Amino acid sequence: MNIPAQPAGGSSVLAELSWRGLLFQSTEELAPALAAAPLSGYCGFDPTAASLHVGNLVAIMALMHLQRAGHRPVALVGGGTGMIGDPSGKNTERQLLPPDVIAANARALGRQLERFLDFGGPRPAILRDNAAWLMPLGAVDFLRDVGKHFSVNYMLAKDSVKTRLEGGISFTEFSYMLLQAYDFLELYRRDGVTLQLGGSDQWGNITAGIELIRRTEGVAAHALTVPLLTTASGAKFGKTEVGAVWLDPARTSPYQFYQFWVNTDDRDVVGHLGRFTLLEHGRIQELESSVDARPERREAQRTLAADVTSRVHGETQARAAAEVSESLFGKGDVRTLSREALAVLESEIPFHPLAPQAEYDVITLFVTAQLAASGGAARRLLQQGGLSVNGERLPADQRSIPHDRALGGGYFLLKKGARDFALLRAQ
Question: Could you give the CA distance from residue 281 to residue 3 in angstroms, rounded to a whole number?
Answer without folding.
Answer: 9
